[in-house]
Amino acid sequence: MIKKALESSYNQVSGVVRRSLTRGLGFLWQAKGRWIQVLYLLGIIAFSAGLVNAAVQPVDQRYVIFPQRGFQSISETVINAFAVLLGASGIYVAYLSGRQTTKPRMANFYLILALMLIATGMYIGIYVYNSKG
To answer: Where is pLDDT greater, at 113 or 102?
Structure first.
């Protein structure tokens, strides 16, 4: 009787944990079989951030943003990739706001969040551009 009660409570707790992990990390479970698409997106982001330029023309790594226009440091590549990710996630959230039909307040929230993400990505990109001199 005690064993059945312990097994029952264990199954309930494990079910709650499994459902919460699936809900919270649902995008990871969906991307499980799509590793080619994930690699493709990471490659596009890396190339658009300037990974090849930073690898081909190494510069002094003391600079976070190298002050000349033709050269780029690795840390600047990471900053550019972050700005691209912010903008792309903002565009995706704007897309989600258009699909939200049941809760109008959530659609407004998604749209405001999308505009903030896009504006932040653009601000970072313009700041890097202006810092180049």
So the answer is: 113
